[in-house]
Amino acid sequence: MKLLFLNGPNLNMLGIREPDIYGRKTYADLEAFIGDFCRELGIEYEIRQSNYEGGLVDAIQAAYGKMDGIVINPAAYTHTSVAVLDALKAVALPAVEVHISAVSEREDFRQISYAGMACVKTYAGYGFDGYRMAAEYLLERG
Ligand code: DQA
Q: Which of 78, 97, 105, 133 has most ligand 1 atoms within 8 Å of CB, for mutation?
């Protein structure tokens, strides 16, 4: 099983940005966490982060024919991007949406998820653990 872990804008600022919401662990910590559980679970993986909508679209398209699934935290583009939604639909890979924070308990504008419309599952509010839960879900789903 090969998974793409794709993170959207400002997630590279983890540890610095709004620590009360996102915690004090850094993006490097997240990459290390993903690497550790992937090795443990026998998952091959790639991790990408982009601050650009087109960068996320390119990464999703590049997964076609190469990856078995996508774990995506589109960050702010979750709530705005039809392009990310269309890219997920285009490649038609099983995708799981992850949010570090509990978006359902936050502002109204975070209540819509375009990307989520093309995802088989969402984990939000579990911190970094959501990424592992998403990978385990895709692994079990096969
Ligand atoms: C986020 C939630 C989004 O609403 C926000 O724009 C982010 C991060 C999360 O992981 O909790 O940048 O996706």
A: 78
Decide: 134 in ligand 1 pocket, CB within 6 A: no
- What are the pLDDT digits (tens) for 23-74? 999 999 999 999 999 999 999 999 999 999 999 999 999 999 999 999 999 9
Q: Does 75 contact ligand 1 (Cβ within 6 A)?
A: yes
Contacts of 92 (CB under 8 A, 6+ apart): none
Delineate the domains of the chain, giving CATH numbers in brackets. Answer: 2-141 (3.40.50.9100)
* DSSP code of residue 18: -
3 state DSSP class of 125: coil
pTM of the model: 0.98
Predicted local distance difference test score (pLDDT) of residue 142: 85
Q: Which atom of ligand 1 is nearest to the CA of 8?
A: 12
